[in-house]
Amino acid sequence: MFGWEFPPFNSGGLGVACEGLLRGLTGQGADVAFVLPRTVPVEGGAGRMLFADDGAVENGSVSALTARLLLSPYVSAALYSSLRTKLGAADFAGDLFEEVARYALRAASIARQESFDVIHAHDWLSFPAAIEAKRVSGRPFVAHVHATEYDRTGNMAPDGRIVEIERAGLETADRIIAVSDFTRRKIVEAYGIAADKIDVVHNAIDEPAPAVGRAILDELRAAGKKIVLFVGRLTLQKGPDYFVRAAKIVSRLCPEAMFVVVGAGDMQRRMIDDAAAMGIADKMLFTGFLRDRELARVYRGAHVFVMPSVSEPFGITCLESLVHGVPAVISRQSGVAETVGTCLKADFWDVEDMAAKIVAILRYGALAADMSANGRKESTRFTWEAAAKKCLETYRKAAEKAKEVLMKEV
Amino acid sequence: MPAVCFYFQVHQPYRVKRYSVFDIGADHGYFDDDSDSNRNNRRVIEKVASKCYRPANATLLEMLRRHPEFKVSFSLSGIFLEQLRRFCPDVLASFQELVATGRVELLSETYYHSLASLYDENEFREQVLLHRKLLMELFGVRPAVFRNTELIYSNAIAAMVKRLGFKGMLAEGADHILGWRSPNFVYAPKGTDGLGLLLKNYRLSDDVAFRFSSREWADWPLTAPKFARWIDAVNGNGTNVDLFMDYETFGEHQWAETGIFDFMRALPSEILRHPDNSFATPSEVLAANRPVGEIDVHLPMSWADVERDLSAWRGNRMQDSALETIYRLGSRVRASGDRALLDDWRRLQTSDHFYYMCTKWFADGDVHKYFNPYESPYDAFIHYMNSLQDVTMRTKGGETA
Question: pLDDT tens-digit profile of B232-264?
């Protein structure tokens, strides 16, 4: 299995999903070797971890930092080169595409050494690695799509080079796994892939760790504030600008509302400017990127979670809010909206509707209570075990397809 | 010996439109959705009229003309009749034509198809009297037998119904209250004298209402001779077989293509083939039979879902909060003396509003999903509560809440 990031060196849902899936597959008795492009000190991952840089664990901050920033699957090619210059990480490949290519070359030699039945690769950064592995081994290739370039750019100005790598991966793959029907449709429409080549496997959520310490937002709650939470990278795709606009409307109807933004990204500056211009800067709190327990504490302190994504292939943060019993208002332009019942949905551009739904949850205690209890209950439907079973089924189909092709060639 | 007693429920609520927080204080037209959605009340009733009411009424009229022994009963909610008068007057005329045959009994119910019997006896009484007045005005009849919203029944409700002067009432023939006893007799309520109870034979009723077109059902396809044999089997073991169902069974729940209308057309002669069988209206059944036993119901029951309880309307916090809020408003709404406000408040009492907020379907009823005109029970609650906030403001003469 070729990935690109893995907790705790992840910047988003891709790493979380890979970790969960790996655990689910191993639990089903699958023998998985998980390949990452660079050596990172991963702890406690199920399966065998392989690193495509031959190196031992590098000590300290450089590797951690580069893994976190340079190799983020969400970084655009332009940002990658500017970050690289700033960090002066001289031992890293010239640009993101070189890094992807280097990974693919190493993948070929790993594929020659290892023995395996199927290749499973996550998103475009690892597709070239999988294509190489398939070429040298003849094994079937399953492409797992967590996001397309159109999603990451909010359907604006996709990078043509990345789209081409995605297309090559999707066309070469024997089967495709999409994280939602929403994404399956996108693959069919934007990449011209046959719908019957694609299986939908929704992401899952684990039970949250038991509550440790008090919620970070306790003081605010104690002061009678209502906490409206945004969790996600502050990029076009996640719709943080729509969050600010909805916040403006909410604060007019509900003056005690506070808006907490968890995440980092290139749109933070714009959000602050917008909030200031709207006169709600004092109601917005930016926590930066948080993970695990810190993030869990923020969820526990929230009254309502908002996911206003412009184009969200799945939206694992919605499941995180459910599992913490936080009522969610989510964008209809998301994969998770097609499968979760306990939430309110709005079109991302309809900030008035979004605000009205946020206000309803803040205003009607019975609504919040029922959504909280039912959301917790519903979140238990989403297990990595079930997702892994579906992946195994896809592997079986991929192997059959590869065999058919082989027979034809013979 | 058994008399087949048909009762059809006919009702359409005034669904609340998407009423947002921004509408509060500015818009009192809670029910005037004019979109292409199932919240558009005119659109819904026109659709159901062409699929069900028109063909079903024509079928019944034809059956009544052909078989002098055939009889049925209806309960038509007040707000259903209001909407017919406004949107489908021809359908109202066809109901009047059916009643004019003298073999179609009309039952009493709350005008607003409400849950008032559970919350406010005065309000309950007023709604029953309003309905009585409407039936007199439209059909020239005064109902003698009562059926409560969703067949909700308890000892206490039976006592209230008796106080309103009715001689009988309908209820669900639920297993948990009948035990080994048969629903095919007249019963009496515990603690109330002089009120006869007709209990729904839910097996035979649901064979028609729910299972008729189900191919997974061992008895599919259901034919009139087969169904008549099941009725015959009651001979010697019952005086009345009460077949109670939603009228929308005919053409809406069971589409015309399933053969439901042909089944009905063929039924009278098949049932009458056995010389001991007959048809009767609820009043006739009560006049002909003495109660054989007593029914004791403390916790209210209904005809809904497998539970036969009230959990479809008040099983979660949203429903409890909505019901608590609307009935708490009663005294203020009355005190306002504002007739339009009183009418809006009562339209918001219709049981369907609370049904749309039901979250049970995670486990059981896709039925709830099918009938829900809102994106989710949570959305149903929001539009409803926002409307109620506006009602609250109106009771204070425009003051903000």
Answer: 999 888 999 999 999 999 999 999 999 999 999
Task: Determine if the pTM surpasses 0.95.
Answer: no
| Cβ-based contacts of B19 with chain A (< 8 Å) | none
Parallel, antiparallel, or unpaired for β B196-200 and B186-189? antiparallel
Give chain A positions within 8 Å (CB) of B381: 364, 366-367
| Beta-carbon separation of B21 and A374 below 8 A | no
Amino acid at B131: H
Q: Phi and psi at residue B399, in whole multiples of 5°?
A: -60, 150
- The boundaries of the domain holding residue A330 are 218-379
Inside any domain, residue A209: no
> Considering the domain boundaries, does residue B181 fall inside one?
yes
ipTM of the shown complex: 0.92
- Judged by CB atoms closer than 8 Å, whether chains meet at A364 and B318 is answered as yes
pLDDT on residue A213: 66
List residues of A whose CB lies inside 8 A of any B CB. 253, 341-345, 352-353, 356-357, 359-360, 363-367, 369-371, 374, 377-378
Assess if residue A80 is contained within a domain: yes
Q: Is B376 on the interface with A (CB under 8 A)?
A: yes
Phi-psi region of B374 (alpha: psi -120 to 50; beta: other; left: phi over 0): beta
Cβ–Cβ gap A344/B376 under 8 Å? yes
Decide if A32 is inside a domain. Answer: yes
Structure-block tokens of residue A274:
């917008």
Residue A210 domain-assigned (yes or no): no
Catalytically active residues of B are 150
CB contact under 8 A, A364 and B362: no
Domain count for chain B:
2
Task: Give chain B's mean pLDDT.
Answer: 95
Q: Fill in the DSSP letter of residue A183.
A: H
Q: What CA–CA distances, in Å, run from B118 to A68, B107, B131?
A: 61, 20, 18
